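Appendix B, record 7
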Amino acid sequence: MKYVAFFRGLNVGGKNTVKMADLTRLFINMGFHDVKTYIQSGNVIFSSDRKQHILTPEIEHAFKEQFGFSGAVVIRSGMEMKAIVNALPFSKTEIEQAQNENPDVQHIYVYLSNDTFNVEKIYRLFAAYSGKDSYKILGREIYLLCFQSVRDSKLASALMKLPRPLTSRNLKTIEKIALMLC
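Structure tokens (predicted):
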């Protein structure tokens, strides 16, 4: 089966620097096949006969052994990636409004977790928010529509404070990886 491993916080702001060639070698040495990386932020596409639920701890352990620091990993199968793209919960009008407000930035981000989200907790976290950005929770993903740069989004900042391995990618990256897994 084909999978993608999304690493959290690699090669961001000069911290946790890992060369993609070294990450590729790690996955090959772990016995995975068809290993490819996509951009420098720690997206590894690979094939494996192993069950998905055992991949995360195996990869996190091998990563720490190889690179000397922990790297949180979120795994998705090719079918799950296709479903993430197809489930985009924002209307064309909502997306166009965000793009018109600031055409120079990405507006849609998907936050991925290994666990299902506690919806009530997230609703309480965002209860006081009154800006234009919006979000939708669908299982193990949170979709975020930003009207400005994600770096300026109060919702994005709050999401990264959730106490779990959580990583995000913009929709363009999600769509590209989903295509690579087909």
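Remarks on this record: The CA atoms of residues 125 and 158 lie 8 Å apart. The first strand starts at residue 2 and ends at 7.
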